[in-house]
Amino acid sequence: MDEIFQKSFHIVKLVSMRAIPVLFVVTYLQERGAFKFLDKFARVIVSKTGFSTVTGKAFVANAGSVYAGGGMLVNMYNRGEISRVNLILSAAFSVFPAHIRILLTATGPVVFSLFTFPVALFYVCFSLTSAFLRVMVAGFLSHKVITREEVARVNGYLASQPRKSRRTRKRTALNAAFKRTTRYALKLVIFVTLITGLVFYLNEHGIFQKLPLNVSLVGLPEEYNVALFSYLGNAYAGMGVISDFLAKGELTTMVAIKLLIFCMLCSRPIVAIKESPTYYLGLYGMKNGILLILFNLSIFSMLAVIVLFGLSIWGI
Questions:
Q1: Are residues 151 and 55 in contact, defined by beta-carbon separation less than 8 angstroms?
Q2: pTM of the predicted structure, to 2 decimals
Q3: pLDDT at 7
Q4: Which of 48, 90, 101, 267 could disulfide-link 55, Cβ–Cβ 3.0 to 4.6 Å?
Q5: Which residues fall within 8 angstroms of residue 197, CB to CB, at 6 or more apart?
Q6: E strand or H helix at 15, and its extent?
């Protein structure tokens, strides 16, 4: 238990050092109206959606840090200026730049170094398609569930505030940033400690590896289960096993793609559980974080199942 506590404390420390300062700065700048220069870009980004410009600002901010864009949205939600459904859809929509940044700078290079070119290209294209699909679905739903009154209220928030002296605005912004960041930090520490402790405990006792999953469910030989179980433990470990099968000529390109998609589909809920303390639940809170996880899992799983079904039709 001591080792689990130490691991959880390490994650709490890591997340706190990254997220809390970013949220404080974002909250302070937002209170001072420092993001008005993003209005022009934000309007273009959300012009075909039902979102307000704050979603467009979060979209731009997420290119630098996912906590920056998320912090903007959480601040608006905590002030009661956007609804819960607006928050969830805005978060799913605006996280797109962060996904692309990670794909291009982290995951993509590793994938191309491990797999053959066709398999690596498929992985990148699948990831891009999943990210685009989430943006499109969120944008489409925004027209259905976000009212014009809410958009007008959010867009006009800063302009409608009574004018204050520069010193008063600065003091008010600092107080607001300190209070909101303190509340966020307390929730983050509680969520991260509890959930990472549970995840580390389950992982240490091999629960993830004992899940009732088998590659035979998609018509693949059971000898490839080692790739599935490795992927459940760590994505790069699973990729390494698949890469070894490819190098030995034990997998064709299309079968490797089918195995990779199945591994990704099965591991996605576990990835969400592992990421939930640091991002979903830590930043958005328990209810909002769970809803965001379910939204993302639904889109990803639907796409993966469609691909697997298509491969099966083609006799792969």
A1: no
A2: 0.73
A3: 66
A4: 90
A5: 4, 5, 8
A6: helix 2-31
